[in-house]
Fold each of these.
Amino acid sequence: MENKEYIWKARKRTIFGLPLSFTVYKLTEEKLFIETGFLSKKEEEIRLYRILDLTLHRPLGQRIFGVGTIHCCTADKSTPEFEIIKIKNAKKVKELLSECVEEERMKKRIRGRETFSDEIHDDEHDNDGDIEEN
């Protein structure tokens, strides 16, 4: 992994927005890596095409120090949800990650699967119970 070219790389920020943690995030064209630990290291690998949803959280304390957290939901069974915690330029990183996810999905010809509830509003049905086309 050392020879890969990273699109983005950052360290989790701690108090006062300083990069004094042992969590490092690395983004390639196909994967996101989350490396944690000092003596005992752990590396998670998330394939970008499996990311389904991104949410940016920037509470007041994080905004004061110019950081934010990105919550990610995936189709991965071992890592269904994870967070990219307290990073600088979180909004730009979220947009970059979103673009990379879409590019990877298009390359692999993967379409997002949305889950719809069985309940459909009455105004979307005609009198026969079929869904009306607009």
Note: The chain has a mean pLDDT of 85.
Amino acid sequence: MDMSPKDYQNYVKQHAKKSPIVKDTALAFVIGGAICVLGQLIQNGYMSLGLGKDDAGTAVSCTLVFLSALLTGLNLYNKIARFGGAGTLVPITGFANAVVSPAIDFKSEGFITGMAAKMFTVAGPVIVFGTVASVLFGLILQVFHLT
């Protein structure tokens, strides 16, 4: 079948599935909000146990990373992501999922060459960029005495 690029674009437009953007946006909002509400409930729980606000915030971050990694390992996070879409990309849980998923996918290749090597396939560039950006920002603050 010989088509021009314009004919191909028309063909794709005719056969492409329409995205339910309102539904997807609403689900992302609900699921992302639910993750944030869970984080707030966990923080309130830690604070009721006597932790200060800063320490409770740190404990919440650790707890959410652990829960995200656990749910990814049990293949539940992906099911939630299929339902809630972008709502599961709430930074800390989405990042934990991005680190754990490749590790699980490549565990059959061995601990070192599979799991450990592939763990940061997705998250590695994010970690590197974040580290370099924070160092550059710190240097700028020091040079201009803004600290």
Note: Residues 20-143 form one domain.
Amino acid sequence: MTAGVRHSSHRRLSLRVAAVAALIALVACGSPEGTAIAARKKTLADSADQIAFNGRWLITDKGMQRGQITSDTAFFFDDNTRIEMRGTVRGLFYGSTGALDAVLTARAATYNMRTQSLEARGDVVMNSVDGRKLTTPLLKYDQRTNQISSDSAFTATEPGREMKGVGFRSDPDMLNVNVTKMKRTKAGAVDLPSK
């Protein structure tokens, strides 16, 4: 019996020593000297002049409203002349008579007041009031010429027609579209005038 008791107490002592050694190793591994700290990524908020939430900006030309842009979050830079918009970006574009021509949605946009330009990025969709739709990953709007353009792939649809290409220039209501490179076009039936 005494040999069994000695063996059992020796085993308990060995387990305690192993547990203490494991605890020391665990503490040593978790020390600040041995832990790698990930570098903090810089965000837009770190260097912005100003931040606005649920903002709305008007685009005007000689007193006439040409557009209205809204976004969830806006970061202002360059003495508040450049706005970086994030979240849901929505733009309304108006024609020369002041009537609504088209509605734009995107995930991000940059509006530069000095160059009077808007660049929308990320799942950009532009819908005209009469049923035309344009989808592209990037869309630029030049306020000085009242033109939209892109050098990216795009798809333009309207009832009975579809056009796919790379690069285009157009007015915001997409009536006069100039395509850089046509990939595919599909048209429905064409009605010919009777004599």
Note: The longest helix spans residues 2-29.
Amino acid sequence: MDGIKDRILHIFSENHLSVNGASRLLGLPQRTVNRQLNEDGAVSTALIRAVHREFPQYSLEWILEGKGDILNSRQIEDENPIPYYENLPLSAGVRATFGDCGEKPDSYVNLPGVRAEFLFPVVGTSMHPEINEGDIVGVNRVKDSGAIEEDKIYMIVTRDERMIKRCRPHESDERLLWCLSPNYPKFTICKEDVVAMFSVDVRISKI
């Protein structure tokens, strides 16, 4: 990565964000962000500050100069242990767990080198043998639903349930997503019913 533009685009890519999706997250006009990163515009202080505000895990020195470690890993491990929801009841609605309700984690876990927003135990066998009942998965929020990758596994939160599946766009109806797993027939869900999506980035196998 030769310059600051490449490093910022690398951050967006690692977090599954298009420039359009990133601009919404950063609160900056899409045209402005695109011009600065993909055209001839200079990268503004406002953009750098916004990126560092939303992605504090990345070293500011690395963003600005490309020097040192990419991640502030020690700061994250010391100050931001991962919330673990061991007994999250499905009837409570996962939507509430990730919002501003009073739902609290059962514990917090420090896992050096692991990047995840939340940890959950897995119930059910729909993704066996890739993910098994009793495994623990770490998930990270997908901020841009247009960045869904067919080879990744996602936790999909709807108004009624949460599930772990692979996803792909419907061939003829852009309002729908296919949900796929090794052990059950594929089915569709309506995008409007999806409250949130999380990529499954960490798997800890049961002993």
Note: Confidence is low (pLDDT under 50) at residues 74-78, 89-102.
